[in-house]
Amino acid sequence: MSIETLANFVDGRGCPPASGTYLDCENPYSRTVWGRIARSDAADAEAAVSAARRAFREGPWSRFTAPQRGAMLHAMADVVAAHAEELARIEVRDNGKTYKEMLGQVKRIPEWYRFYGGLADKINGAVLPTEKPGQMNYTLHEPLGVIAMITPWNSPLMLLAWKLAPALAAGNVAVVKPSEFTSASALRFAELMTQEAGLPAGVLNVVTGLGAEVGAALTAHKDVAKVAFTGGVTGGRAAYVAAAEKLRPVSLELGGKSPNLVFADADLEQAARGIVSGIFGSGGQSCVAGSRALVHVSAMETFVARAVELTGKIRLGDPMSADTDIGPVATPAQFDRIMTCIGWAKKDGATTAIGGAPVSDPSGGEALFVAPTIFTGVWNDMRIAREEVFGPVLAVIPFETEEEAIALANDSDFGLGAGIWTRDISRVHRVAAALEAGSVWVNSYKGGSQISPFGGYKMSGLGREGGMEMIRDYLQVKSVWLNLADEVAYPFPL
Ligand code: NAD
Q1: How close is the Cα of 331 to the center of ligand 1, in Å?
Q2: In sequence order, what DSSP letters do the residues of 354-365 get, joined into one string?
Q3: How close is the Cα of 233 to the center of ligand 1, in Å?
Q4: Mean pLDDT, to the nearest integer, of 93-121?
């Protein structure tokens, strides 16, 4: 069977990697290699950054007015919307998530380009009333330049939109390094944006390959003005350190060990539904997966019974089928990681309420599946309660008082999301204020908007994505002083 060969996308066209080497792309459901992507290195990073820099300094993009940039982002939104099914299929082929999830994500992407497109001509400086007579002072808000965008495999195009839409609205240019497991969608997206939306060559470049190779080359590149990274803590730290060497700003969207707090007065049916979907939606392969359930001792039995019952109905299978709720695990390495984490929980004495083992491929193939798993009898100091699994594993931990619940929730290296399940409105506000998490949902879990900021406390990240203010992270401010007097102030003898 012939396989597709995908080149990098640099300066508006396909560019084979300088080294001539490639990485295989495997479909996690069929377990077949459908194509190969460029295994890029520092030479490819150099070519992409140079093309981006030319586009930023000299190309047509450098002459786009703010309203023209806004119109371009709206055109990009229209092209994504027109190709949503195609782009969603490309995502599923690489990461094995269900088509309904990926299509839902891709269909929301245009909202990001429209929101930030609408902001493009609303970025203005100010004339400042300084104390200096005869002097006028005003500010200019300028783009930073070349932004290196590094993205993971779980929601590739959506997480790219979170970075690219505000960056382009502010007038920047981009070099994208998608996950080595899911590079095809970014390549196709860049091609569509250039060929159909009319984005000038060099504004959006994509180089594929390994994080430690082309990813590291990009984050250390002297002409990269900012690094916007989404992924795990290890890669994020490496990107942060590399950018620090060049004193460049960095945004990091990293992992989580997000808790749901179920109080005694909660609607336990709704809590069970919200928590089961909050962890097992996406097969747990979501940064904000609610992987810890902190449950009041009086609610424990009812909550666990219902959560187990709901979990037992989740259907594993072909990610393209409308009847499938969870597709295969995205990669063999991720499967091994999930099984290792399950092993820790069992060894540390947690009780397997459901799952806890691999499931053979329902279609008789070789796809890797893990049963949605709930562990009870977990204490917050167990490894299963502390480390991100990034798979379908829920750890249920008991508590007795509100103070204890807050302390357990906050006793984590991470702080991405949290859920509160209660009918007590005073408690809602007390607990929401006390939780160390970038997003707090009350009587629901997950969900977000381009209009609202998203990001993490502690090791879950640095900076926010989404919302109006966030566009400022892609701008720098220049202060311009004009002497209105005829003569310059001169302190020395004439
Ligand atoms: P990962 O860190 O392995 O890879 C993410 C990206 O970083 C990839 O493109 C990879 O090639 C690159 N990379 C890795 N090492 C690098 C280095 N040294 N220098 C430069 N680039 C490097 O993460 P992953 O397995 O693809 O994704 C899963 C992780 O992403 C989870 O921890 C998850 O929680 C996190 N995530 C966070 C968010 C968020 O918004 N907070 C969203 C989705 C996923």
Answers
A1: 14
A2: E--SEE--TTSS
A3: 7
A4: 98
